[in-house]
Fold this sequence. Notes:
The chain is mostly loops. The chain has no helix or strand.
Amino acid sequence: xxxxxxxxxxxxxxxxxxxxxxVQGNRAKFISAVLExxxxxxxxxxxxxxxxxxxxNASFKNxxxxxxxxxxxxxxxxxxxGANLDGTDFMNANLSGVTWVDGKKICSHGSxxxxx
Length: 116
């Protein structure tokens, strides 16, 4: 059974090491949340807001992140293998060590706003 978290708010919460695989979280708000090592594999997070969140080593494998916002988020070491990132905004996000959607490209140290 999948959890439905549409429009839910987890701002400033600490959900580190949680398993949120396959959740339906359209428009969920994780603003300034601590989500280190959280698993979002196969989650539907269309238009979710992760502004200024700590997402170090989080997993978004095969997640639907269309139009999600990661403004100023720390995504160091996160995994986006197979994720749908159409329209996703990474403005000022730290993408150092991120595994990109192809599962092969690793963003270089100091990557900000886009994977280099």
